[in-house]
Amino acid sequence: MEWEVVIGLETHTQLKTKTKIFSGASTAYGAEPNTQACEVSIALPGVLPVLNKEAVQCAIKFGLAIDAEIAPRSVFARKNYFYPDLPKGYQISQFELPVVGKGKVTIQVPAVGKNEAYEKVINITRAHLEEDAGKSVHGALEGMSGIDLNRAGTPLLEIVTEPDMRSAAEAVAYAKKLHELVQWIGICDGNMQEGSFRCDVNVSVRPKGTTELGTRREIKNLNSFKFMQQAIAYETQWQIDTLEDGGKIQQATVLFNPDTGETRAMRSKEEANDYRYFPDPDLLPLEITEADKAAVRAEMSELPEAMKARFESEYALSAYDASTLTSSKEVADYFERVIHAGGDAKLAANWVMGGVTAKLNAEDKSIADSPIDAAALAQLIRRIADGTISNNAAKQVFEAMWSGESDVDAIIEAKGLKQVSDTGAIEAMIDEVLSANQSMVEEFKAGKEKAFNALVGQIMKASKGTANPAQVNVILKEKLSK
Amino acid sequence: MINQSLKNLSQLLASKAVSSVEMTQTFLDRIRQYNPDINAYITVDEEKSLAQAKAADANIAAGTATTLTGIPFAQKDIFCAKDWKTTCGSKMLENFIAPYDAHVITQFNNVGAVNLGKTNMDEFAMGSSNETSYFGGVKNPWDLTRVPGGSSGGSAAAVAARLCAAATGTDTGGSIRQPASLCGFTGLKPTYGLVSRYGMIAFASSLDQAGPMAKSAEDCALMMNVMAGFDARDSTSLNHLKEDYTAQLNQPLAGLKVGLPKEYFADGLDGDVAKVIETAIAEYKKLGAEFVDISLPNASLSIPVYYVLAPAEASSNLSRYDGVRYGHRAEEYDDLMEMYMKSRAEGFGEEVKRRILIGTYVLSAGYYDAYYLKAQKIRHLIAEDFKAAFKQCDIIMGPTVPSTAFKTGEKTGDPIAMYLQDIYTIATNLAGLPGMSVPAGFSHDLPVGLQIIGNYFDEARMLNVAHAYQQVTDWHTAMPKGIA
User: Fold this and answer.
1) CA distance A91 to chain B (A)
2) How many helices (H) and strands (E) does chain A have?
3) Which of A348, B25, B157, B384 would bridge with A343, disulfide CB 3.0–4.6 Å?
């Protein structure tokens, strides 16, 4: 039987606010345990929560960025359960009325093997504000577990998708897109090692062609895209194997073990808590007006979708190129800086998506760490555009620049890569090659078209790549037709 | 001195006839004398109180004093007070020393008032007789075999026995007004949101409200001037313009329209209590008030609604007492679950456990709609009843409690009978309205309180209505026999 995997994601994004969501304690990462735990973080008797407006602005930004309904009135609810790192015995979250409703995120799924790259719209069900818990620390104290409440009360936006993804590749593409988006709009630092962006992935399988959803298992707390890919692949295969062996899938929460590459159930849903959600009487409903939204919108920079559309119209880029270049704000800004420094748009797009990205990927760097700044790349592109160097020669210059040399013209000079466009010089080179390769000339005249390209190759080689290929073509054709 | 109004005490201090240290010492001596019998205070710290008194005297000498500077108040042990043991009447917090001040405590500190000590109360404010306190029941100064009411029973007994100049209390379903009625003094539960709940240990967050417990309406007004006001640390604190609650005290009552809800005079009301209330009504008529019959048709649902909503909130509010960070932790346990279970089983009393169980039940999947949601809807209807009633009248009057103080132990075996103590007070909490109890007479030598309910933010008017009555009656000045 052919199976189809169905995937939905719940992502906890830690909001980049200075203070906690319901108190004035700092949210800075990495402080000594419990030094950022004020009376509210510890949940002393009598303390009360006060909503941080900055966290609300972050939620509004996200809602605007995914073109979602932003609730004029949403409600904070208590999620009740006991856990040592949950100081109040309940988490303040949103349940029935979340701040952000239905929205959309468009993803680009990259080409894999024979499958071409494609775009897909992922529907967002909701996004809600909530507070993070603290951390249990095991092993720091002899025979005891410690509790660090520095993180307790850190604001989170939990973003939930519809079960719209049909492959690990789509899920990872969505997670990457969301990761870029929340950083683009400045609501999350995106630091996955520090837990600022954590994904829970719901996976189920069903016979291809059916519409009913299978029983899902939730893979918790994935904090790298690589692990996500591996975990989904393993989980999908495990579910298919289980069903094909006549087994049943039990709804469960599972953990991914990066060492073994396996997923394993941590608890089944039957044992799960009844969270006894109810509206938190300590907090008033959150009201967001059109004016509030307008004020946030006014502060936001251009969103990826808008920038993509502008790149298509302003720079005559293809939809695919425009969306690739706007997959990250840093890349998009770099690309535009190249253009503003005088680089041709089409060439700039090719270089940023091609040479630059390849190098960055190979060295696992972000564009901020690129040794070639936008102005330098623009200079290189200008030299291609004005015919000073060929594309081939440009690659050599680019390599030199990547290794730390900065002056484009000096590199061209030093390596003798300046393109020869002097007709006389090219003619001389061609004559030399033709006389040395008479057999090829004969073949061409006998009708072998391929021989022409071979001759061009010889001429380019003789010129060390400096001959202007267009001129070589024209002159060679002339000479051979004589 | 012990019978003087706050205004007179203030004048004694201002004229330097008495120092705050002397005044504080007088009350501390009385606490030493009477508290062993009455058990009104859980914590007394003479050194701390006298240090505050000394500072107050310096303020008075420097001319920086205000009306309540140097006056000794009792604070219900539900308010966190920095460096004071704050127990909330529970074994769970037996050794909890608060590291911060509740808003109410800060307000009293800011005017240089003296904290005389922390008063006894029903555990986590759950009770109507003060018998659920881990620190033992409080005795009613009018009859030591009887209860003072609850949950603010310690504050009530302290006011009645003159073991303080006045006291603070909190009222979730009647916990200021019912003890005020049973102990014969004046108590006010303000509009929900008028006094910040910050640092006030939560029982049922949407109902809890702090207020003054004092010898007269005028004293309550002076305390309201200190206690009321917006506090950004409480999201339910109302940004209401700061008022002088003494400003309207002497307004004439001519033309005042008073509503009498027929439901508050029906079956269940003790005949003698009814007579006292009728006499009070006659007095008000002499003062020029007009009476109209009104109806609060959903009032009878107040108790069931309350005993769904208050436990629901309490079950969640009390989850933080898990033995992990502070409070009682069991001595021995094998794992985390056992630590939770034993700590909470040992730390909480029976009534608290009962309400946690009820609350957990009504919030559970499958029961939420039938109980919690339905109760919320009825709560709304009850508020609508009052809204309609206030179209017909300015003030509502009736009994505070159906009967007078009952014997210790009389109702402890019957929770429902105990819950009925609050039958006339709970509706105002559900609606968020202000309510008062004012001494109106006696039945078999036990005090009877008249309840005055006002519209939202009508505290000044209510205090005026009570003050006018206290100008022509002397019920509020009566002292329990045996207390001198």
Assistant:
1) 10
2) 17, 15
3) A348
Shared-domain flag, residues A445 and A477: yes
Among residues A285, A318, A342, which one ends one of the domains? A285
Residue A296 lies in a domain: no
Question: In this complex, do B325 and A43 lie within 8 Å of one another by their Cβ atoms?
Answer: yes
Q: Report the chain A residue with the minimal C-alpha distance to residue B336.
A: A84
CB-based contact B111:B98 (threshold 8 Å): no
A51 touches B: beta carbon within 8 Å:
yes
Size of interface A-B (CB pairs under 8 A): 95
Provide the domain count of chain A: 3
Of the two residues A405 and B45, the one the predictor is more confident about is B45
Q: What is the ipTM of this complex?
A: 0.96
Tell me how close the Cα of B243 comes to any Cα of chain A, in angstroms.
24
Residue B321 has pLDDT above 80, yes or no: yes
* pLDDT (average), residues B452-459: 98
Are A259 and A373 in the same domain? no
The answer to whether B235 contacts A48, with C-beta atoms less than 8 Å apart, is: yes
Looking at beta carbons, which residues of chain A come within 8 Å of B356?
none
In Å, how far is A126's CA from the nearest CA of chain B? Answer: 22
Query: pLDDT by residue (tens digit) across B295-310?
Result: 999 999 999 999 999 9
Please identify, among A380, A396, A415, the residue that sits at the C-terminal boundary of a domain.
A415
Compare CB distances from A39 to B100, B316, B318 and report the shortest one's residue.
B100
The answer to whether B363 contacts A278, with C-beta atoms less than 8 Å apart, is yes
pLDDT tens per residue across span B226-243: 999 999 999 999 988 899
Please tell me the distance from the alpha carbon of residue B40 to that of residue B374, in angstroms, as a whole number.
Answer: 39
Burial class (CB in 10 A: 0-12, 13-18, 19+), B144: middle
Q: Indicate which of B86, B118, B172, B317 best probes the interface with A, i.e. most A CBs within 10 Å of its own CB.
A: B317
Q: Are strands B257-261 and B395-399 parallel, antiparallel or unpaired?
A: parallel
Looking at the fold, whether A334 and A460 belong to one and the same domain comes out as no
A48/B198 Cβ within 8 A: yes
Residue A437: is its pLDDT beyond 80?
Answer: yes
Q: Do A258 and A407 sit in the same domain of this protein?
A: no
- Cα–Cα distances in Å, from A388 out to A127, A419, A468, A473? 53, 5, 9, 18
Regarding whether A383 and A320 lie in a shared domain, the answer is yes
- Check which CATH number belongs to the domain holding A438 and give it: 1.10.10.410
| Residue A86 shares a structural domain with residue A233 | yes
pLDDT single digits (tens) A236-283 = 999 999 999 999 999 999 999 999 999 998 865 555 679 999 999 999
**Residue A282 structure tokens:** 């300590």
Q: How far apart are CA A12 and CA A26, in angstroms?
A: 19
**What separation, in Å, do the N-terminal and C-terminal C-alpha atoms of chain A show?**
66
Taking only the tens place, the pLDDT of each residue in B174-187 is 999 999 999 999 99
- Summarize pLDDT for B337-392 with one digit per residue, the tens: 999 999 999 999 999 999 999 999 999 999 999 999 999 999 999 999 999 999 99
Q: Which residue in B35, B269, B68 sits closest to B158, CA to CA?
A: B35
Are A86 and A207 in a shared domain?
Answer: yes
By the 10 Å C-beta count (0-12 exposed, 13-18 middle, 19+ buried), A186 is classed as middle
Residue pLDDT, tens place only, A323-345: 889 988 889 999 999 999 888 88
pLDDT tens digits for range A122-171: 999 999 999 999 999 988 788 888 999 999 999 999 999 999 999 999 99
What is the DSSP code (8-state) at residue B70? T
- The whole-angstrom distance between B312's CA and the closest CA on chain A is 9
Q: What's the confidence (pLDDT) of residue A380?
A: 84
Percent of chain B clearing pLDDT 70 (strictly above): 100
Residue A149 within a domain: yes
Residue A30 domain-assigned (yes or no): yes
Of A48, A51, A90, the CB nearest to B319: A90
Which pLDDT score, from 0 to 100, does residue A474 have? 84
Kindly state whether residue A293 falls inside one of the protein's structural domains: no
Phi-psi group of A31: left, alpha or beta (phi > 0 → left; psi -120 to 50 → alpha; rest → beta): beta
Residues A250 and A390 in one domain: no
Tell if the CB–CB gap between A284 and B360 is shorter than 8 Å. no
Is A84's CB within 8 Å of B86's CB? no
